[in-house]
Design a protein that fits this description.
Blueprint lengths: L14 H11 L2 H9 L12 H8 L8 H9 L9 H17 L3 E2 L4 H14 L5 H11 L4 H7 L3 E10 L3 E12 L2 E11 L5 E11 L1
Parallel strand pairs: 1-2
Antiparallel strand pairs: 2-3, 3-4, 4-5
């Protein structure tokens, strides 16, 4: 775990940003250790990763923009919320990002949102799952909230080419039941800024 304190300008303002920041500072072996832990073992990070989060994300500050944002989305969070509880929730959200079977991707949230916006505009709404998730994003819901707090949506990706511009296969869809849902598969090339350079649908499913 890095001992460096992040500057005030890099303190995350949302739970999603907090998860992305935690992932960015972890070393590969630390990510492997976290993802191999069981949910019950996450409490063991209280005095290591949890302490780093509490100190660096300024969770002891009652004016913390992160706490303000989290409280606006969940009434259980406010300036009286124990920083230990918040840091535990951030660790759990980070663990969820790697463990959730309905959301498995190494891509950043920025890349995923760019992808979802792109296919929404280019495919003219013929996949309802794309329309539904973009409506939720437009309302301000984070990917964490959508995939972890709402049932039905699923997304997974894997890298199929590692040239200058990374190429991924992405499968995304929504299922409201065994006979209600749709989705598709795409091959997507991102540039170094995580914008879509090329995108083509390779499959579609309807249930």
């Amino acid at each position: 775990m890095t001992e460096n304190r992040i500057p005030q300008s890099e303190v995350p303002k949302t739970l999603n940003d907090a998860v992305e920041k935690v992932i960015s500072i972890l070393k590969p072996e630390e990510i492997r250790e976290l993802t191999s832990a069981t949910e019950d073992e996450l409490g063991e990070y209280h005095f290591t990763l949890g302490l780093w989060i509490r100190n660096n994300f300024r969770l002891f500050d009652e004016n913390s923009p992160l706490i303000k944002n989290m409280s606006s989305r969940n009434p259980k969070y406010d300036f009286l919320t124990d920083p230990d509880e918040i840091s535990s929730d951030i660790i759990k959200a980070t663990w969820d990002k790697f463990h959730g079977t309905n959301y498995m991707t190494e891509l950043s949230d920025k890349a995923i949102i760019n992808f979802l916006h792109y296919i929404s505009k280019s495919e003219k709404g013929d996949i309802l799952a794309v329309k539904f998730i973009n409506e939720l994003i437009k309302k301000g819901e984070s990917l964490y909230e959508i995939f972890k707090k709402k049932s039905g949506f699923s997304l997974n990706s894997h890298k199929i080419s590692d040239n200058e511009d990374a190429k991924y296969q992405i499968r995304f869809g929504y299922s409201a039941g065994p006979e209600a849902g749709d989705g598709g598969e795409w091959e997507v090339i991102f540039d170094k800024h995580e914008n879509i350079k090329e995108c083509g649908r390779t499959g579609q499913w309807i249930s």
